[in-house]
Amino acid sequence: MMAAATPPDQAARTGASRTSASRTDADAPTAGASVSGNAGAPRVNPLQRLWLREIGMERLWLRQEPAAPSRPAAAQAQQPASAPAAGAGPAAAPAAPAAAKASPAAAPAAAPAAAVRSGPPPRPPARTREASPDPAPAPTPAEVAERVRDASLEELSAQVQACTACGLCHGRRHAVFGHGGQPTRWMVIGEAPGEQEDRQGLPFVGRSGQLLDAMLASVGMSRERDVFIANVIKCRPPGNRNPKPEEIAACSPYLMRQIALLKPERILVVGRFAAQTLLGTDATIGNLRGRIHRFKDESGREIPVVVSYHPAYLLRSPSEKARAWQDLRLACSQL
Ligand code: SF4
What we know:
Helices cover 40% and strands 8% of the residues. By secondary structure, the protein is an alpha/beta fold. The protein has a 6-stranded mixed sheet with strand order 1-3-2-4-6-5, with helices on both faces. It binds iron/sulfur cluster (SF4).
């Protein structure tokens, strides 16, 4: 019997081989190279030897075993194939009676489970990039400017909603195009949408918006009738950080086209960032307030610009509201 032919020390080695080398069925030498004709020593080619050495099994596997002349030839031929099939080391295979009794015709059936491989161990499959359609490249500011050149206000709004010209498109809920009445007497320009604006898709909502509406009402103006409110940047920067120069460059064609289409009589620009961006300066808001600036639109028309504080700042610093009132009075004056 095959079980009787298994030496005790060999069975012990088999158990060790399972844990130390994690062999799989595919790790065994080929059946054709596994058993020598008369001594039971496996005969392996150089590549197989290297592989056995690699997994620490060279000495164990290639050790000369005592010949077992009483073993039937058919059982000897069956051993290598059945050993991997049992999922154990090479010495465990003979203990499987079913394998020992298998007829020659049954051997091929066992072969797939005992599939062996010669040569070096397999390498893990190469990581391949998942096939995914390449996103369209973001349009350049020049391309955005070309697209908006002849757009109507409605077309411009649709372009902003679909815009991917800068990375802010990835985090937005809504692009905030702007809102207001026409014909436009005043245009109020702020920095960028905040959280509430991003949620609602409208500019200057929440407490800042209420204060701005009150300020406009104090001089007889209304966003529903004659004031159009917009921002330099149409999508909310994460964490309300300042927009980056490349985001300003990407988004500015929309604002330029809005100004050209709306043709406001005045521009009231609120907040340091918006004032610096529109006027192309790094001067402080204290230096920019209290005087009239001129903005030249696409057609060359000059529009008077008044700089004031952002309503959000006025909420934090109510004492500055008196200065903001002066700014509104300046914007109302005959310029
Ligand atoms: Fe486009 Fe302006 Fe929004 Fe950037 S911020 S994705 S440029 S609309």
